[in-house]
Design brief:
Keywords: Cytoplasm, Methyltransferase, rRNA processing, S-adenosyl-L-methionine, Transferase. GO terms for molecular function: 23S rRNA (adenine(1618)-N(6))-methyltransferase activity. By secondary structure, the chain is of the alpha/beta class. The protein contains ten helices and nine strands.
């Protein structure tokens, strides 16, 4: 994991339980005799996230509606730290901090994890967008319930499924970074089958029925055309924002999608495209980043916005 990731070591369950006693009923020795949780149990994963967010980020009140995506905190933190390094490259190797740094989280979800980590680690200002009104309402409630987040995270609703940035980015608004975990699957059936495979790989699957252990509603898990189509639209809609966003980024879950994304980017005027490998246990994914600004323009951006 990234050297700044607070979660590079194994989970310290006694400390996590001390921070959040609600985790205790879910912790038990695994087949190796180590304390762990059943990662196929949505309630257990949710309790673990509540403990992690409370212990490491000071978020005392975190909850999500039943069935909504409950993502692994270490992976989300890893993505954000690698994305922060993209900004550091234009800033003399130092990650810019403070509210002058504006980040857009495309598909923030009810969990709001990227804004939580980015706000608490770097004091950045976040805008989170989502098409799901229930998710946004839950995220707004959670932000309001935690004084450490209040005033630092703005949430906006996307009303058109085919739009990524259109309808969210305001005229003349600038962002230093965009982040996104796109819907990976092209249908509900594909999402369920993927979760079943994940359960078998983890060794936790107890029945042949698919189990969404990390949860996820329709717009969180699937999109017509899958992640390839979603990120293709993101690439297309990034072009008009070339001078108003420094770095665009997205997670790419499927290895076979990577070549397509690079092809789409090759058809634009992107001046720098990076692929960063992210490996967490048995799961491997990639962070793809692109910018339309050369090195001189990036340094001028940093001097104008962060100094």
């Amino acid at each position: 994991m990234h050297p700044r990731n607070r979660h590079s070591a194994r989970y310290d369950f006694p400390q996590l339980i001390a921070a959040s006693p609600a985790l205790a009923p879910f912790v038990a020795p695994n087949k190796y005799g180590d304390e762990s949780i059943d990662f196929s149990d949505y309630a257990a994963v949710k309790a673990l996230n509540q403990a992690l967010l409370k212990q490491f980020y000071g978020v005392a009140s975190w909850d999500i509606p039943a069935g909504y995506l409950c993502p692994p905190i270490p992976g989300r933190a890893d993505y954000l730290h690698h994305a922060a390094d993209l900004l550091a490259a234009a800033n003399g190797g130092t990650v810019p901090q403070g509210k002058a740094v504006h980040v857009l989280d495309v598909g923030v979800g009810a969990n709001c994890v990227y804004p939580i980590v980015g706000t608490r680690e770097y004091n950045w200002h976040f805008v989170g967008s989502d098409i799901d009104g229930v998710a946004l309402k839950a995220a707004k409630h959670m932000v309001a319930a935690n004084p450490v987040l209040t005033g630092r995270i703005e949430l906006r609703q996307q009303y058109h499924a085919t739009d990524i940035f259109d309808g969210i980015v305001k005229p003349r608004e600038e962002f230093d970074l965009t982040v996104c975990n796109p819907p990976f699957h092209s249908s509900a059936e594909e999402a369920a089958a993927g979760s079943q495979r994940k359960g078998r790989n983890l060794g936790y699957a107890k029945t042949p029925e698919p189990t969404l252990n990390f949860g996820g509603r329709n717009t969180e898990l699937w999109y017509e055309g899958g992640e390839e189509q979603f990120v293709r639209r993101m690439v297309e809609q990034s072009v008009p924002l070339a001078s108003r966003v420094l770095w665009f980024t997205s997670l790419i879950s499927k290895k076979e999608t990577l070549r397509s994304i690079h092809y789409f980017l090759s058809k634009t005027a992107a001046l720098d495209v990076k692929t960063i490998e992210l490996v967490h246990g048995q799961k491997a994914s990639r962070l793809v980043a692109w910018t339309f600004q050369d090195a001189e323009q990036q340094h001028a951006w940093a001097a104008r916005r962060w100094k």
